Amino acid sequence: MSVADIKKTATERMQKSTDSLKTSLAKIRTGRAHTGLLDHIQVDYYGSMVPIGNVANVNLADARTITVQPWEKKMVQVVEKAIRESDLGLNPATQGDLIRVPMPALTEERRKDLTKVVRSEGEDAKVAIRNVRRDANEQLKKLVKDKLASEDDERRAQDEVQKLTDKFIAEVDRQVAEKEKEIMTV
């Protein structure tokens, strides 16, 4: 493995950490409705678990209501149950073959709790990024030990890995600040 390979791998792994954070933050709901909120919900479709988007149309009725319209009449109850039992704390209501999912307004206390969750997710992402940096630095030390790279190359590469780390941690901070702002906006 070369110095360039180590940097490339570190960049890819750090990018995966920030992408994972983005996905986690999307699941944390604000007072507003958005269809992405239901993306991770799995529905039992004839014995196999599939994402809700594979068995129904998911749309916005208004700023606080998501509508879910299953393509098959017998899937209405199954989809409603999946939404109700999800970890989102939503209470769907069925009207014929249309499921309405109202977003409850968030209390001030709940908003503060959610910001703590957001910060925790951000901290987890930062820890993952720092772990990638540590792994990259260990691999660079191993290259020097195996006489595949000079100490100067190692120092330069470690500086570049540190710059990458700083860049991705700044991205995590930006995502966390953005989500906190979104949550605290009434």
UniProtKB/TrEMBL annotation:
Keyword Cytoplasm included in the entry's annotation: yes
Q: Which residues form a coiled coil?
A: 133-167
Q: Where in the cell is it found?
A: Cytoplasm
Where on the tree of life does the source sit, at the highest rank? Answer: Bacteria
- Give the record's keywords alphabetically: Coiled coil, Cytoplasm, Protein biosynthesis
Which InterPro entries is this protein grouped with? Ribosome_recyc_fac, Ribosome_recyc_fac_dom, RRF_sf
- Where the record annotates domain Ribosome recycling factor, the positions are 21-184
Which family is annotated? Belongs to the RRF family.
Listed PANTHER family = MITOCHONDRIAL RIBOSOME RECYCLING FACTOR PSEUDO 1, RIBOSOME RECYCLING FACTOR
Q: What NCBIfam families does the database record attribute to this sequence?
A: frr
This protein is called: Ribosome-recycling factor
